[in-house]
Amino acid sequence: MENLVGYCAAILTTTAFIPQAWKSWKTRDLSGISLPMYALFTMGVALWLAYGIEISSIPVIAANGITLLLASVVLFLKISAR
């Protein structure tokens, strides 16, 4: 049961970033994105991914691996737009 909860949480939190990444990629308008917030968030997600790897938790690894990719795209676009 705990894995089911983990997978549901992983799916919900990860898919929440898809609209932002898609809109940022499509419009290249990142004026509403805070660079410090996204930089800190991306580093935090990277650490969550490392933690998931350490504890061998597939839901944590999958969610944070995908979220790290999406957040990195937005962060890269934000830095490139400066």
In short:
This protein is mainly alpha-helical and 82 residues long.
Helix content: over 70%
Q: How many distinct domains? A: 1
**Terminal-residue CA separation:** 46 Å
Give the ordered list of helices and strands. HHHH
> Counting H and I runs of at least 4 residues, what is the number of helices?
4
- Overall pLDDT metric: 90
> Major β-sheet, in short?
none
Q: What top-tier CATH class fits best?
A: Mainly Alpha
Number of strands: 0
Would you identify the CATH architecture? Up-down Bundle
CATH topology: Monooxygenase
Rg result: 14 Å
The secondary structure category is mainly alpha
The low-pLDDT segments are none
**Basic shape:** elongated
What percentage of the residues does DSSP assign to strands (E)? Answer: under 5%
What does this structure look like?
This protein is mainly α. It has a single domain (2-80), classed as Monooxygenase, CATH 1.20.1280.290. It has 4 helices and no strands. It is elongated, with a radius of gyration of 14 Å. The relative contact order is 0.20. The mean pLDDT is 90.
